[in-house]
Amino acid sequence: MRLREWRHRSLHRVQVHPVPCAGPETEIWASKDRLKELAGNVGGIDQTAFGSCLDSDATLATVEANEKEALASGVNSTPTVFINGEKVEDTTQAGVKAAIDAALAQ
């Protein structure tokens, strides 16, 4: 089963974007400068590696690819959830659980 959720922010993706540099379970939205400033207060983050990751073309490419996939999939609101490629219309906890249960039953 594949679960995918997109969260949309109406901010320019080059200046402000989600940061995969903080780890796969972390979602951060802020300007690059603000993120670098905030990261200085977080223990365990390699400041040099974090800054390099933020500034890298690879990170920007990841963000742009995610945005392109979301737009191509018809994402137009948040949250938007897909399970096994099917859009879940009821994004309440109960609705997503029902969709997961249905996918597992197949």
In angstroms, what separates the terminal alpha carbons?
10 Å
How many strands?
5
Average of pLDDT: 77
Strand order of the biggest β-sheet: 1-4-5
Percent in strands: 15-25%
Question: How many domains would you count in the coordinates?
Answer: 1
Shape: elongated
Instruction: State the helix count.
Output: 4
Q: SS-based structural class?
A: alpha+beta
- What Rg, in angstroms, do the CA atoms define? 16 Å
The main pleated sheet reads as: 3 strands, antiparallel
Poorly predicted runs of 5 or more residues:
8-17
Order of helices and strands: EEEHHHEEH
Helix proportion range: 40-55%
Concise overview:
43% of the residues lie in helices and 16% in strands. The chain is an alpha+beta fold.
Verbal overview:
- It is a single chain.
- The protein is an alpha+beta fold.
- The chain has one domain (3-105).
- It is 43% helix and 16% strand.
- The protein has helices at residues 32-39, 47-55, 57-72, 93-105; strands at 3-6, 16-18, 29-31, 80-83, 86-88.
- The strands form 2 sheets. The protein has a 3-stranded antiparallel sheet with strand order 1-4-5, covered by helices on one side.
- The longest helix has 16 residues, at 57-72.
What distinguishing features does this structure have?
single chain; 106 residues; alpha+beta; 3-stranded antiparallel β-sheet; two-stranded antiparallel sheet; 4 helices; 5 strands
Task: Present the secondary structure layout.
Blueprint lengths: L2 E4 L9 E3 L10 E3 H8 L7 H9 L1 H16 L7 E4 L2 E3 L4 H13 L1
